[in-house]
Amino acid sequence: MPRYRTYRTRAIVLKRRDQGEADRVLTVFTPNMGKRTVMARGVRKTASRKAGHLEPFTYTALLMAQGKTWDVVTQAETVISFRALREDLDKTAHAYYFAELVDAFTQERDSHPELFDLLLHSLEWLETSENPPLLARWFELRLLRLTGFQPQLFHCVECGEEIQPVTNYFSLEKGGVLCPKHGEGGRGTEPIAVGVLKILRYLQSQPYVTVSRLQLSPGRLRQVEKVLAAHIRYVLERKLKSPKFIQALTRY
Questions:
Q1: Confidence (pLDDT) at 3
Q2: Which residues neighbour 46 within 8 Å (Cβ) at sequence distance 6 or greater?
């Protein structure tokens, strides 16, 4: 019987899918090895000791054995369960969204410690947040910065001039704001209100402890969300699943 090398790591579970009669394939995000696809054997059996430690967005300590196709989880112990997130449907949906974003913007085995810290701290803040949508907008902008897709919000992406407090334009193709001279009437550009741009710039430049004090109307926050959702969709070239569920919850 072959012997496989073992190693320990901490990880946040991003997603899972059933495999065979009792196994699960997990996508986990680690601080030093990036995103990994791993196998949890027998975890769906009622007697499994690992099952409760491998739920989505659980922060867990793993003992892994290297395998031929996927590394195998041999032990798992919860570090932070984020139980409060599971007791609030809106927060659960936002936690899934954070995990889905990280999954979409990362490649297998691409180490990204800063992004890991962002996800971990954002899940911690989400547990006590009174405004998950505001945290989500801040999370989106910080993730975009860390992955190299940050929109330019302070200078015109065409001429480089500093953006003035007038109606400017947002270009998905160019990845940021255009001044009136270069944006008005341009192909694929949309006007962006002064107030919306001001909020986006504040979210992009401030830490969350400062951002969390913002008091924004639901309507204004939806305008900010619309700009960022379009930018993320353009970068990924596809829609994510979680936002649709969050929107459905909002309607009810």
A1: 53
A2: none
To the nearest whole percent, how much of the chain has pLDDT over 90? 90
pLDDT at 174: 96
Is there a contact between 190 and 168 (Cβ–Cβ < 8 Å)? Answer: no
The kind and range of the H/E element at 143 are: helix 132-146
In terms of pTM, does the model score above 0.90? yes
Cα–Cα distance, 179 to 185 (Å, whole number): 11
**How far is residue 185's CA from residue 169's CA, in Å, rounded to a whole number?**
9
What's the CATH number where 58 sits?
Answer: 2.40.50.140
Residue 1 has pLDDT above 80, yes or no: no
User: Does 23 share its domain with 122?
Assistant: no
Cβ neighbours of 137 (radius 10 Å): 24
Radius of gyration of the chain (CA): 20
Q: Is the separation of the CB atoms in 32 and 111 below 8 Å?
A: yes
Q: How many CB atoms lie within 10 A of CB 216?
A: 16
Identify the domain boundary among 81, 100, 123: 81
Confidence bin at 68 (pLDDT 50/70/90): confident
Report the distance separating Cα 103 and Cα 99, nearest Å: 6
**What is the distance between the alpha carbons of residues 13 and 26, in angstroms, rounded to a whole number?**
7
The sign of the CA dihedral 48, 23, 113, 221 is negative
Give me the helix-helix angle, 194-205 and 132-146, nearest 10°.
70
